[in-house]
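job 3f2a | input accepted
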Amino acid sequence: MTSASTSTPAIVDHRQRAAAIDPQRSFIVQAPAGSGKTELLIQRFLALLGQVERPQQILAITFTRKAAAEMRHRLLQALEAAQQEAPEESHKQLTWNLARKALQQDQRRQWNLQQNPSLLGIQTIALGLIGEIVIFASGRRIKDYTVDKIV
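job 3f2a | predicted structure (151 res):
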């Protein structure tokens, strides 16, 4: 399915994606490989960077060091790209706009994120050390995950 104006594939879950980027809401993102989870999480992280007083107020948790490194790399890549011309693809434009706002906050607060990427709170969770993960939002327990095996 394509949109009439751009001839690019329509994103069927665009409302859910927009809601997941909203910093006023909490979300768990579950989707198959190749569905755009990392891009969505990068967009959310950038949206949060555009609003917080310190980047350390944001924490992204992944299950592997590789995923954490990929997220950090993509965040820095988005910040770098935001210093260039806007891209033509609509999903890339959203990332670019969010990165521009994050860069403005970066400059106002003098974080220098591109020179100090360790300020980006992206961590891995050691599944081998725990048997249960409890997710809290707004002080309320919202979901339990029991870890039966490590894949």
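job 3f2a | The first strand starts at residue 60 and ends at 62.
job 3f2a | closed
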